[in-house]
Amino acid sequence: MEKTNKINIRVRYSETDKMGVVYHGNYAQYLEIARVEWLRALGVSYRWMEENGVMLPVVSLQLNYKKSAKYDDLLTVEARLKKTPTVKIEFDYTIFDEVGDIIAEGNTILAFINSETLRPMRCPDYILNKL
Fold first, then answer.
1. How far does the signal peptide extend, from start to end residue (predicted)?
2. Domain at 4-128: CATH architecture
């Protein structure tokens, strides 16, 4: 199973260092934006999930940097669901620059958590049914 969504992000000045290169910690935010938009494209928002008792914290984050992104670059962030979610949901990511070169590759694993009990829970049916 592979469900993919792509988004574009323009690198802002505040995301760069003195050399105009994107600070490494900002890539995690780019992955989060892509993941949130992946869910939105599926018809589910983080806000709605949280209002309905489901939290989705990151339990693992991996990033491999290939090339520097710079101020004002237009990046494409591709988020791909790795497998059918269970109590966890896993995404692979590729970040491309404007000419299609790979800037970075990443992976995140998130856990479905019941906001009342703070215990892990299975992926909600409303997500599984859309997949």
1. none
2. Roll (3.10)
